[in-house]
Amino acid sequence: MKRKPEDIKVFVSNVVPAIGVDMLRNENFNVITWDDSNPIPQGKLIENAKQCNSLICSITTKIDAVFLNECKHLEIISQCGAGYDNINIPDATKLGIPIGNTPGVLTDATADIAFGLMIAVSRKMFFVHKKIQKGEWKYFALTSNLGIELKNKTLGIFGLGLIGMEMAKRCKGAYNMNVIYHNRKRNTEAEKLLGAKYVSFNELLAQSDVLSVHSVLSVETKDIFNKTAFEKMKPTSIFINTSRGGVHNEEDLLQALTEGEIWGAGLDVTNPEPMSKDNPLLNMENVAVLPHIGSATIEARNGMSRLAAENIIEFYKHGRIPNLVNPEVINI
Hints:
5-stranded parallel sheet, Rossmann fold
C-alpha cells in the first residue's frame, strides 16, 4: 500500500527559505527542521536523520561514509544547492540512496558575482574602498590606484556549464571578450552562440586574460590551480573562482600574487572556508574576496529551497526525482 505523506518524515538539516518547508507541509509531509543557523553537529545530524525517511541538506552538512552507514535507511537525500561535494556520492549510490540537487535556479546570481568580482579586481575596488575608510584618500593622483581595462580581452572559462555560459555571455556582451574554455566535453552551444573556442588546460592558462572557474570540485579538479598552473598564466591575468575553494591551492595563489605571476584574484570561495580574518589575501591591492555569496539572492535561494522540496515531493508522489545526481542508483 502506498504510504500517505503524513507517514513520511523529512528532516531539514539547515535553515532554508520557508518556501520549501511550506511546500512539504502543504503536501502533508511530516517535516522536522533544524532551526539553528549554525551547521548541525554530526551527532545531532545522525540522531535526527535516523528518525526520518528522507533528508534535505546543504553544503555545510557532511554526508560522509560514517553518516551513510548509520543512516542507510534513508530513501532520498535532497541537496539544497547545485554542488554536492559534501556528499559521498559513490557510497550513497552503493546503498541505493538517490541524491537530488537544485541546478539552474542559482545560475544568474552566481554569474553576476563572478562578473562583479572581475570588475572589482580589475579596478582594485575593495582595496581603494578600504583606503577611504582608513582616511588615506587625500587628493586626486594621476598615477595612483591604476587598474586594467577588460574590453577585447580573452576570457578563459574552466567548466563551461550553465554558470560559466552566463559569465561568458556577460563578458562577451559588455566587453566583447574573446571566449576560450576547457571542459570535460565540448560545449557546442557556446561555440555557436559566442564563438567560444575549446582549448587544452595548458592553453587556457597561457591565453586567458581573465580565467574564471565554474567547475565542480572532484578528485580531478582538487588543487588543479596550483603553483604549476599559476606559473603558466600571464603576469597580467586575473583569476576568478566562484565554484569551490578546493579547486585552487590558496598558498600557491598567494605566492603567485606576491611574486607577480598573476595580476589579481577574485574569490567567492576560499580554501579553507571560511577564510581567517588575518589572511594576507584580504589586504592585497589586486584581490577581492567575498564570503561564498554566489547564490545569495532572494530569488535564487527561494528557488533552491523550492527545487529541494520538489525532489522529495515528486519522489514520493510519482517515483521520480526532477534533479537526480546519481541516476545509476535506479539500476541497483
